[in-house]
């Protein structure tokens, strides 16, 4: 358990992103990061280390259990199966009989492809989420779990994978000190029981939270001032002439002692005049401190790669087979469609009402076919159908925009590739399109006085079905490009304007040609 401390803009987030392999490719940086002596090109850092950001991004319609179970199914069991096989061999060679309960648990957590995993229940228990396991995560519009529970869900989502290193950035944002303490205490249990590593950035941890950590890393102005055991950090600053007051929190002292504004109050060497000690001076002094010397000796010793099990470093991009990922995404999309069934029912009712209005406006008994004006009215009836089917796809915008942050988080964490997310969304909308278009055509085709031939009827049904699929895909594309409701609303209005203006009804083909000739 390592605590990352530092004032704002000291580089904490950048350091965590660098360790997770998620730095922007456009940034220039020096140095290198190795895991067990291996360069980042030798394995997949996104699956070996789990980066957990400040903000809790989840699908609000899913429950806590479903969120963690989906994460576990996507990320797979990792190297747990191979490690269990190796452990069994060594136990047999040493004639060791494992504890029955532990043996059953390890075997259950090493089985991939299960919809309900023992590991999911274990994570819920160790993070204290059992009480709200079947409660929706929620958001501003849907009542769900509390802020502290949502933060634990964010952590549990990553614990369900094979990552042994947790890089957690400002997880106390928006939480009180008591909730932060409970979360860190749960993480400490997880890390110590399963022999993992947690590198956690906190801004102002309470003293009891600070005492839960094993090591401290203090950052200031992008430089590491101290890195080592928690017990020696005050000793280092006392050797520099600064002492933490008795009733002062150590974490607050560490973040203020490098500040030009707050440093003077901690100066204790009365026989020497105080002068500001810069970050560079602290860094130089740490190199000669016994903790710093030990750290330099450790870094100077070449790491022998064969000493560690290479199974700990994940080399595959995804935890399960591609078809399994597709199956998991299908099940999640079907679940969300059930939870959002009101939206689809409302769209059907809306189409039904508009079909009744349209069939009465263009009533068969009033639809004559004798003059060119009658032909224009007939074309207007067809255009009205096209207009309604096109506008019915607008609901896709809000649904996609609200789910995009979750998609980007899970895609960047290599839960699944983008195609595994997009294909279920497209295919599962086809039955909805059949239902909507079928209802519209049945309600409007014959009442509007269209050609009674069944072939013409089926042609219009097919045409409007393809149009519905096109409009849904178009608005999904606009939402993916805009990523914001204001931008997507503007773009969708523009595209609709272009499509309707060039469909041949509002502006005839001849007028469009003349306009183009005039502009030239």
Automatic annotation (TrEMBL):
GO cellular component: plasma membrane
Provenance organism: Gossypium armourianum
Family assignment from sequence similarity: Belongs to the ABC transporter superfamily. ABCG family. PDR (TC 3.A.1.205) subfamily.
Name of the protein in its database record: ABC transporter domain-containing protein
The UniProt record lists the keyword Cytoplasm: no
ABC transporter domain boundaries: 1-246
Domain of life according to the entry: Eukaryota
Keywords: ATP-binding, Membrane, Nucleotide-binding, Repeat, Transmembrane, Transmembrane helix, Transport
One protein family per Pfam: ABC_tran
Membrane association type: Multi-pass membrane protein
Ranges that cross the membrane: 342-363, 375-402, 414-441, 461-479, 491-512
A GO molecular-function annotation: ATP binding
Cellular localisation: Membrane
Annotated Gene3D superfamilies: P-loop containing nucleotide triphosphate hydrolases
């Amino acid at each position: 358990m390592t605590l990352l401390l530092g004032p704002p803009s000291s580089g904490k987030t950048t350091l965590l992103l660098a360790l997770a392999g998620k730095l922007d490719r456009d940034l220039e940086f020096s140095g290198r990061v190795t895991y067990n002596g291996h360069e980042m090109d030798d394995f997949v850092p996104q699956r070996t280390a789990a980066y957990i950001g400040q903000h809790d991004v989840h699908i609000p319609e899913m429950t806590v259990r479903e969120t963690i179970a989906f994460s576990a199914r996507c990320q797979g069991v990792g190297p747990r199966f191979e490690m269990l096989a190796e452990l069994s061999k060594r136990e047999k060679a040493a004639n060791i009989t494992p504890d029955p309960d532990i043996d059953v648990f390890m075997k259950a957590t090493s089985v991939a492809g299960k919809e309900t995993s023992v590991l999911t229940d274990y994570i819920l228990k160790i993070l204290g989420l059992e009480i709200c396991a079947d409660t929706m995560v929620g958001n501003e519009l849907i009542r769900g779990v509390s802020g502290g529970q949502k933060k634990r869900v964010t952590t549990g989502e990553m614990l369900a994978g094979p990552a042994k290193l947790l890089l957690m950035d400002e997880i106390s944002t928006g939480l009180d000190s008591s909730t932060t303490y409970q979360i860190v205490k749960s993480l400490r249990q997880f890390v110590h029981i399963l022999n993992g590593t947690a590198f956690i950035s906190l801004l102002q941890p309470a003293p009891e939270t600070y005492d839960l950590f094993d090591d401290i890393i203090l950052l200031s102005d992008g430089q590491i001032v101290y890195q080592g055991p928690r017990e020696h950090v005050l000793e280092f600053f006392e050797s520099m002439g600064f002492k933490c007051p008795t009733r002062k929190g150590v974490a607050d002292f560490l973040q203020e002692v490098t500040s030009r504004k707050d440093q003077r109050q901690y100066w204790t060497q009365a026989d020497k005049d105080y002068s500001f000690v810069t970050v560079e001076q602290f860094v130089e002094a740490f190199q000669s401190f016994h903790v710093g010397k030990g750290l330099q000796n450790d870094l100077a010793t070449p790491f022998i790669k064969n000493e560690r099990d290479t199974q700990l470093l994940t080399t595959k991009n995804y935890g399960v087979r591609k078809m399994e990922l597709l199956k998991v995404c299908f099940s999640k999309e079907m679940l969300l469609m059930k939870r959002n069934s009101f939206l689809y029912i409302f769209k059907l009712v809306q189409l039904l009402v508009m079909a009744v209005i349209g069939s009465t406006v263009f009533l068969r008994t009033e639809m004559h076919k004798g003059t060119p004006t009658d032909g224009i009215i007939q074309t207007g009836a067809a255009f009205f159908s096209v207009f309604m089917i096109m506008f019915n796809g607008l609901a896709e915008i809000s649904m996609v925009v609200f789910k995009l942050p979750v998609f980007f988080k899970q895609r960047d964490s290599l839960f699944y590739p983008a195609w595994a997310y997009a294909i279920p969304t497209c295919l599962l909308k086809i039955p909805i399109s059949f239902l909507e278009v079928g209802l519209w055509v049945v309600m409007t085709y014959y009442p509007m006085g269209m050609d009674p031939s069944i072939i013409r009827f089926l042609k219009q049904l097919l045409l409007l079905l393809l149009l519905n699929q096109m409009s849904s895909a178009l608005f999904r594309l606009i939402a993916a490009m805009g990523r914001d409701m204001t931008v997507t609303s503007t773009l969708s209005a523009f595209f609709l304007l272009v499509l309707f203006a060039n469909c041949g009804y509002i502006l005839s083909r001849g007028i469009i040609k003349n306009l183009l000739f005039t502009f030239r």
